[in-house]
Amino acid sequence: MYLKMILENSEDIIAKANEEREKWKKIWFTNWCFDILHPWHIETFKRAKEYCDILFVALNWDKSPYWKTKPWRPIHNETHRSIILDSIKYIDYVVPFDEETPIKRIEEVKPDYLFKGWDYKAEDVVWYKEVTENWWEVVIIPTVEWYSTTNSVNKILWNK
Questions:
Q1: Mean per-residue pLDDT for 50-72?
Q2: How far apart are the C-alpha atoms of 151 and 33, rounded to whole Å?
Q3: How far apart are CA 81 and CA 84, in angstroms?
Q4: In this predicted structure, what is the pLDDT of residue 141?
Q5: Which residues pair with 94 in a beta bridge?
Q6: CB–CB of 95/109 below 8 Å?
Q7: Residue 160: which pLDDT band, with cuts at 50, 70 and 90?
Q8: One-character DSSP codes across 122-154
Q9: Counting beta carbons within 10 angstroms of the beta carbon of residue 27, is it exposed (0 to 12), middle (13 to 18) or buried (19 or more)?
Q10: Domain count, the chain
């Protein structure tokens, strides 16, 4: 199966980020599990892409510690989530990670900006200190409406 933008190893990630930077592209970065995509995710990607040339999205791989608190998830495995993200026109590259945080991927990409959705405060982002110490910025993208993957799963499973 051909995925146009999944970069799984550090060498490929660094090479692609450097290639884009040499073209003077403005690079943005975000991360999450993206287990079940909903309109909030798409709107956030769309708004981020209005400000950047290249968008890297880090994806929690199935072995990521994130899932330990959600034993019944992920609903979709890492391959399926990668395929879904691969189809979104606003995303340029998907970079999976197994660690607790995506700081290794951030250091490889060296983006100009990192962004999260409106449900975060910039200074509360786990890697805020590391990012701002390296002259990068954390940007909060406002979105129009609140959606929740957990709420969607509850509705599907328990009609709540």
A1: 77
A2: 15
A3: 5
A4: 75
A5: 6, 57
A6: yes
A7: low
A8: GGGSTTHHHHHHTT-EEEEEP-SS---HHHHHH
A9: buried
A10: 1
Question: pLDDT tens, 77-109?
Answer: 888 888 899 899 999 999 988 888 888 999 899
- pLDDT band for position 143 (50/70/90)? low
Please, are residues 6 and 94 in contact by the beta-carbon 8 Å criterion?
A: yes
**Cα gap 76→24, rounded to integer Å:** 36
The CATH number linked to 122 is: 3.40.50.620
Whether 3 is covered by a domain: the verdict is no
Residue 39 lies in a domain: yes
State the burial class of residue 77 (Cβ atoms within 10 Å of its Cβ: 0-12, 13-18, 19+): exposed
Cβ distance 116 to 125 under 8 Å?
yes
Residue 5 within any structural domain of the chain: no
Does 4 map to a domain? no
Structural domain including 19 reads 10-158
Give dist(CA 7, CA 99) in Å, integer: 16
pLDDT digits (tens, 9 = 90+) for 109-141: 999 888 877 767 777 777 777 777 877 788 777
- Residue 102: both structure tokens together: 């995506």
Q: Give the span between the Cα atoms of 86 and 90, in whole angstroms.
A: 10
